[in-house]
C-alpha cells in the first residue's frame, strides 16, 4: 500500500501554491502542519483528484488519481464543505454511500454503524439544518469512512469538536491508521503529537520537514513556532 | 454496484425539497386556472356600456351552439347564417349591440365566425357574400395558397399541404369545441409558465453544488464524476417533464370541467382554419401539450448546462429569462426563411399554436415532416448533445479558492 506523490506542483498565475513535492506515504497516520496559505489544502485537493496539479503525478498502488478505482479507495473530509440542509443525517450518508458505489443493504448497515460511531444515532432522522457545527463535523467524518477507505484525507478534522469528541476521534484515527494511509491537517499541534506517526510540515508550498517526531527532537510545538514564528499567529 | 437509481432519487429529492419549487408551481397552477376561467368572470361591455356578465354571455352562446352542434355546414346553413346577419341594419355602428343581432344573427355567430376564419373575408365582405358551398371551399383553398406564398413554401411543401388538405373531411360538421379552443389558445402562456418554472427551479441545480461546497465530496467519490452527473441530468429532465405533464393535465381538467368534452372528434380546422393536416381537435391538443413536455425537457438540459458553466443560479436565471423575453419581442422576417424557421423553432419561442402547427416543413430522407413531428425529435438529439457537452465541463471542474 503506497501513495506516491511525485514532483507535484500547483501554480496559479504568479503564485506557486505547491512546489515540487515528492513523498511516498505508506500505512500510518501523517500529520500535515503549516501556516495559512502554506499549500496544505491545495495538496490535499490534488491527492483527492478534485484539483489538477500543474505538474507531477499522484498514484496509489499504480492507480492514477484520476481513475475511478482510485476514488473508490479514497475518503475525504474537506476543511469547509456544505451539506444538504433538508436531508436527514441518514439520508446524507445513504446518498454519499451511493456516490461511493456501495450497495443499498451495505450502505444502510454501514451508515447505522458509523452514525453510532460518531454518536449521531439519536439524530439520524433529523434534518441536518438542525445539527450543531460539531454534529455536522462528525457527520462529515462518518461520510469519509463509509467506503472503508485505504486513503483517508482529513482537512482540519478536529475543528468544531469538543474535547471529549476530539479524544474519541483520535482513537478512531489511531485504529484506522494501522491498516490504512491517513493524512490529516490540523492547526492543533497537540493533535498531531498524539495521533500522527509521521509529521509533514509545509511552508510556502514546499515540504520543509518530513519524518517521525520523537521526544529526543524536542517539543513539536516549539519547532513549529520556530519555523513559522509570527506567521502562525494569524491562523 | 450500479447506484444510478438511488442517486437519481436523491437528486430528485434535492430539487423537490426546495420551497421555491412549491411556490413556483403554485403560481403556475393559479395562473393556468385564471387563464382558463378568467374569460367567464366579470361584466361584458359593448362600448362603455355594461350589457351582461361574461358568464351569462357564455351560457347564451353555448345554448345557441348546442342548436348547431352536429350540423353539417352545408348550403342551407350558410344561407340561413348570411340571411340572419343580413337582418342587422347596415347603418349600425356596432352590429353586436343591435337588437337584430341578438335576436336573429347571434344564434348563427359560430357559423359566421367559421366562414370568416375559413375564407379570411372581412366583415363587410361576408355580409355582402352570396353564400355558396363551392365558393366557401374555393376561398378556403385560395386563403391557404396565399398563406403558403407568404411563408415562402417550396413547391414540394405546397404539394404536401395540398395532399393533406385533400384528406380534411369536408363538408365540415359544426361541433362545439370550446374546451379544445381554450387549450389551444392557452398553450402559449402555459408553455411560458413551464419554461419559467424550469428556469427558476433548475437554475441552481448544478451551481449550488459549487456555491454550497458539496462539489468536493461528490467529485472525489467513485461515481462522482460520471454516474452522479447522469443522475442529476435525469432528475432535472424528469422534473421538467413532470411539471409540464402535471400542468398540462391540470389545464385539460380545468378546461374540460368548465367547457365540457364536446368536440372530441371535431376537425381541427374548426379551431385553426389555416392548417390543413387532417387531425381532430383532441389530437391537436395532445400534440400541443406533447410539445410543451418535449420543449420543457430540452430546455431543462440547457438550464442545467448553463448552471454548471456559470456556477451561479442568478446568472443562469438571467440568461434563460433573457432568452424567453427575446423570443417574445424579436422575430425574423419570413423572407429569411431558414433563419426565421430556426428562430421560431427554438425552445424559447416554439410554444405557440402557430409555431407548433407551422406550415413550414422540414425535409428528411425524402419525406416532409411538420414542426410537431420534427421538433421533438430534433430536441431529443439536441438534449443529448447538450448533456454530452456538459459532462466534461462537470467532470473537469477544479475545486480552488474558498
Which characteristics define this entry?
heterodimer; A: 235 residues; alpha/beta; Rossmann fold; Ribonucleotide Reductase Protein R1, domain 1; 2 domains; 6-stranded mixed β-sheet; 4-stranded antiparallel β-sheet; B: 402 residues; mainly alpha; two-stranded antiparallel sheet
What do these coordinates show?
The complex is a heterodimer of chains A (235) and B (402). In chain A, 35% of the residues lie in helices and 27% in strands. Chain A is α/β, with parallel strands linked by helices and 235 residues long. Chain A has 2 domains: 3-73 and 149-234, Rossmann fold (3-Layer(aba) Sandwich), CATH 3.40.50; 83-148, Ribonucleotide Reductase Protein R1, domain 1. Chain B folds into 2 domains: 4-39 and 176-395, no CATH class; 71-158, no CATH class. Chain B is built from 19 helices and 4 strands. In chain B, strand 3 and strand 4 form a beta hairpin. At the A-B interface, helix 2 and helix 3 of A face helix 1 and helix 12 of B.
Describe this structure in a few short sentences.
The complex is a heterodimer of chains A (235) and B (402). Chain A is an alpha/beta fold and 235 residues long.
Q: What is the helical fraction of chain A, as a range of percent? A: 25-40%
C-alpha Rg of chain A, in Å?
A: 18 Å
Please give the most extensive interface between any two protein chains, plus how many residues each contributes: A-B, 33 and 31 residues
Q: Can you tell me the CATH class of the largest domain in chain A?
A: Alpha Beta
Rg of chain B over CA atoms, rounded to whole Å, is: 25 Å
How many DSSP E strands of chain B?
4
What distance lies between the first and last C-alpha atoms of chain B, to the nearest angstrom? 33 Å
Q: How many β-strand runs of chain A?
A: 10
Amino acid at each position: 500500500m503506497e501513495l506516491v506523490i511525485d514532483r507535484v506542483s500547483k501554480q496559479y498565475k504568479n503564485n506557486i501554491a505547491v512546489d515540487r513535492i515528492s513523498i511516498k506515504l505508506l500505512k500510518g497516520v501523517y500529520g500535515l502542519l503549516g501556516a495559512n496559505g502554506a499549500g496544505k489544502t491545495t495538496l490535499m485537493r490534488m491527492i483527492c483528484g478534485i484539483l489538477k496539479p500543474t505538474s507531477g503525478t499522484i498514484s496509489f498502488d499504480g492507480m492514477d488519481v484520476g481513475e475511478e478505482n482510485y476514488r473508490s479507495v479514497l475518503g475525504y473530509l474537506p476543511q469547509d464543505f456544505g451539506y444538504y440542509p433538508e436531508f436527514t443525517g441518514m439520508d446524507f450518508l445513504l446518498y454519499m454511500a451511493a456516490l461511493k458505489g456501495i450497495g443499498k443493504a451495505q450502505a444502510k448497515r454501514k451508515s447505522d454503524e458509523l452514525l453510532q460511531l460518531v454518536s449521531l444515532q439519536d439524530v439520524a432522522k433529523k434534518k441536518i439544518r438542525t445539527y450543531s457545527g460539531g454534529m455536522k463535523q462528525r457527520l462529515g467524518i462518518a461520510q469519509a469512512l463509509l467506503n472503508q477507505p485505504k486513503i483517508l484525507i482529513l482537512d482540519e478534522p478536529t475543528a468544531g469538536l469538543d474535547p471529549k469528541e476530539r479524544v474519541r476521534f483520535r482513537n478512531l484515527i489511531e485504529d484506522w491508521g494501522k491498516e490504512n494511509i491517513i493524512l490529516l491537517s490540523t492547526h492543533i499541534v497537540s493533535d498531531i503529537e498524539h495521533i500522527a506517526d509521521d509529521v509533514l510540515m509545509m511552508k510556502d508550498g514546499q515540504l520543509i520537514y518530513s519524518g517521525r517526531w520523537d521526544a529526543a527532537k524536542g517539543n513539536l510545538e516549539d519547532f513549529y513556532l520556530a519555523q513559522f514564528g509570527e506567521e502562525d499567529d494569524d491562523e | 454496484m450500479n447506484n444510478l437509481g438511488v442517486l437519481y432519487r436523491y437528486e430528485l429529492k434535492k430539487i423537490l425539497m426546495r420551497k421555491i419549487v412549491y411556490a413556483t408551481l403554485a403560481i403556475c397552477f393559479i395562473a393556468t386556472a385564471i387563464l382558463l376561467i378568467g374569460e367567464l368572470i366579470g361584466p361584458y361591455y359593448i362600448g362603455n356600456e355594461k350589457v351582461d356578465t361574461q358568464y351569462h354571455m357564455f351560457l347564451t352562446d353555448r345554448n345557441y351552439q348546442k342548436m348547431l352542434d352536429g350540423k353539417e355546414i352545408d348550403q342551407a346553413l350558410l344561407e340561413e347564417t348570411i340571411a340572419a346577419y343580413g337582418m342587422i341594419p347596415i347603418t349600425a355602428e356596432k352590429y353586436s349591440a343591435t337588437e337584430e343581432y341578438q335576436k336573429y344573427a347571434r344564434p348563427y355567430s359560430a357559423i359566421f365566425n367559421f366562414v370568416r376564419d375559413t375564407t379570411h373575408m372581412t366583415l363587410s365582405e361576408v355580409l355582402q357574400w352570396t353564400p355558396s358551398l363551392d365558393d366557401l371551399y374555393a376561398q378556403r383553398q385560395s386563403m391557404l395558397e396565399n398563406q403558403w406564398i407568404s411563408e415562402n413554401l417550396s413547391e414540394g411543401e405546397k404539394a404536401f399541404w395540398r395532399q393533406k388538405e385533400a384528406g380534411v373531411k369536408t363538408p365540415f360538421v359544426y361541433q362545439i369545441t370550446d374546451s379544445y379552443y381554450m387549450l389551444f389558445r392557452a398553450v402559449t402562456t402555459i408553455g411560458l409558465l413551464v419554461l419559467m418554472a424550469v428556469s427558476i427551479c433548475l437554475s441552481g441545480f448544478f451551481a449550488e453544488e459549487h456555491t454550497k461546497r458539496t462539489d468536493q465530496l461528490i467529485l472525489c467519490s467513485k461515481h462522482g464524476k460520471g454516474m452522479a452527473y447522469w443522475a442529476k441530468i435525469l432528475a432535472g429532465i424528469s422534473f421538467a417533464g413532470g411539471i409540464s405533464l402535471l400542468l398540462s393535465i391540470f389545464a385539460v381538467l380545468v378546461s374540460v370541467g368548465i367547457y365540457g368534452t364536446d368536440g372530441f372528434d371535431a376537425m381541427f380546422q374548426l379551431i385553426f382554419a389555416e392548417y390543413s393536416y387532417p387531425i381532430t381537435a383532441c389530437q391537436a391538443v395532445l400534440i400541443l401539450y406533447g410539445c410543451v413536455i418535449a420543449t420543457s425537457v430540452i430546455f431543462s438540459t440547457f438550464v442545467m448546462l448553463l448552471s454548471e458553466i456559470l456556477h451561479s443560479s442568478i446568472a443562469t436565471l438571467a440568461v434563460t429569462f433573457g432568452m424567453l423575453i427575446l423570443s417574445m419581442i424579436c422575430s425574423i422576417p419570413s423572407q429569411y426563411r431558414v433563419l426565421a424557421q430556426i428562430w421560431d423553432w427554438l425552445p424559447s419561442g416554439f410554444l405557440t399554436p402557430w409555431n407548433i402547427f407551422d406550415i413550414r416543413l422540414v425535409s428528411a430522407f425524402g419525406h416532409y415532416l411538420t414542426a410537431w413531428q420534427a421538433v421533438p425529435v430534433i430536441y431529443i438529439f439536441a438534449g443529448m448533445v447538450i448533456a454530452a457537452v456538459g459532462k466534461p465541463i462537470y467532470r473537469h471542474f477544479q475545486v480552488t479558492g474558498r
